[in-house]
């Protein structure tokens, strides 16, 4: 394989993974570990299986059709691509407000500046990436470096918290409790909304597509889930170590509390680095992928792609600085992301069996069955969550 291809494949994997690893990812993981303890390992295991099934199907179909998801959806049913694009962009914008807020919190922990000032700085960093000539290559390198940094610091904190590994492994396969809401939340946060398309669309833009590249595309999609899952597992173990010691985690900022309890003030500063890295890479991924959903809908939009990405980041930053972080809206959109997955994956599975979209390519039957099962399970659990949990947020 060419070195340039290897770099693009790794970049796509890290773009997807770091898009998933945002402020919500850190908070969800620590919060659910508090409530489920070692049994949260089972939730992670099930979510990884679902994530891999969704990613493999979607990335392969994008690669073999050589089209973006919205164009595939319009080929399945005229107008459906516009619906999908609107849902993705709305979700991406709402989440980006939260991502910018997380970046502001990270700089606040590191330097003591206000979250608003930190958010402005972080927004400028993200905008700067897309203003350079080789924006795609810089984005790949930026997400890789910060991705490795986040994982490395979390591993250090895990060792400091000394979790009971044996109990965690046992409960991963024999849980004491099973929480469907936790599964929906984790899947929605890892492959929901725009996130599942981040890597696939990046490979298209880099020219890695077609049947001849399917093997590498599949490996890249699994690598993406692997990177996000490694971060999830180490953060779970770090938190479980604190829970097992009977220490009290601050509900106001669970992940910061875990880092501080495990490694003192040094750990707290490490949290600042991890939070900023997680947030700013998610800002980059959300902006890039959301705009990739609308740029092919009009030649004018295609021409001004960079300007659209920059505008997306500027709007997110401005809303956070002026209004703050709309928590209830973010949680609501998070649940909606869980419902976007069965819709988008369902569209892709239909497209996988239409010759006008994928030509003479034969999509493996086991992948179709695996994907269809995920569509049914996520539609049911996502609907259940919306009906039962969302009214509590707005009551």
TrEMBL record:
Please provide, alphabetically and separated by semicolons, the GO molecular function terms listed in this UniProt record.
Answer: cadmium ion transmembrane transporter activity; manganese ion transmembrane transporter activity
Keywords, sorted A to Z: Membrane, Transmembrane, Transmembrane helix
Q: Does the keyword Membrane apply?
A: yes
Q: Biological process GO terms, please? A: iron ion transmembrane transport
- GO cellular component term, pick one: plasma membrane
Q: Where does this polypeptide localize?
A: Membrane
Membrane topology per the entry is: Multi-pass membrane protein
Q: What is its main location?
A: membrane
Q: Which domain of life is it from?
A: Bacteria
Q: Where are the transmembrane segments?
A: 36-54, 75-97, 109-132, 144-161, 181-200, 221-244, 273-294, 306-323, 329-352, 364-387
The protein depicted here goes by the name Membrane protein
Q: What is the lineage of its organism?
A: Bacteria, Bacillati, Bacillota, Bacilli, Bacillales
């Amino acid at each position: 394989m060419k070195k340039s291809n290897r770099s693009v494949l790794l970049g796509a994997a890290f773009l997807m993974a770091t898009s998933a690893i945002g402020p919500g990812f850190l908070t969800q993981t620590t919060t659910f570990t508090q409530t489920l303890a070692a049994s949260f390992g089972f939730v992670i295991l099930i979510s990884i299986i679902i994530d891999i099934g969704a990613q493999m199907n979607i990335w392969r179909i994008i690669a073999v059709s050589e089209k973006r998801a919205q164009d595939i959806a319009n080929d399945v049913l005229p107008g459906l691509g516009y619906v999908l694009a609107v849902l993705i962009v709305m979700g991406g914008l709402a989440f980006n407000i939260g991502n910018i807020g997380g970046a502001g919190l990270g700089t606040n922990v590191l330097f003591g500046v206000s979250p608003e000032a930190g958010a402005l700085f972080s927004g400028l960093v993200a905008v700067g990436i897309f203003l350079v000539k080789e924006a795609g290559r810089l984005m790949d390198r930026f997400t890789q470096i910060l991705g490795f940094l986040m994982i490395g610091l979390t591993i250090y904190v895990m060792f400091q918290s000394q979790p009971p590994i044996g109990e965690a492994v046992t409960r991963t396969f024999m849980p004491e409790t099973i929480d469907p809401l936790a599964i929906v939340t984790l899947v929605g946060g890892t492959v929901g909304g725009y996130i599942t398309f981040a890597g696939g669309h990046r490979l298209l833009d880099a020219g890695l597509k077609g049947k001849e590249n399917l093997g590498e595309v599949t490996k890249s999609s699994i690598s993406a889930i692997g990177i996000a899952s490694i971060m999830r597992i180490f953060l779970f173990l770090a938190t479980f170590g604190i829970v097992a010691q009977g220490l009290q985690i601050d509900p106001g900022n669970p992940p910061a509390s875990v880092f501080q309890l495990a490694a003192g003030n040094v750990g707290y500063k490490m949290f600042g680095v991890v939070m900023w890295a997680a947030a700013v890479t998610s800002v980059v991924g959300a902006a890039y992928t959301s705009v990739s959903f609308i740029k092919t809908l009009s030649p004018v939009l295609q021409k001004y792609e960079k300007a659209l990405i920059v505008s997306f980041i500027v709007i997110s930053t401005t809303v956070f600085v002026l209004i703050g972080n709309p928590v209830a809206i973010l949680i609501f959109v998070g649940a909606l992301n869980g419902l976007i997955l069965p819709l988008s994956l369902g569209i892709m599975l239909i497209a996988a069996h239409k010759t006008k979209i994928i030509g003479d390519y034969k999509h493996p039957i086991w992948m179709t069955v695996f994907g269809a099962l995920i569509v049914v399970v996520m539609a049911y659990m996502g609907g259940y969550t919306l009906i039962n949990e969302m009214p509590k947020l707005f009551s």
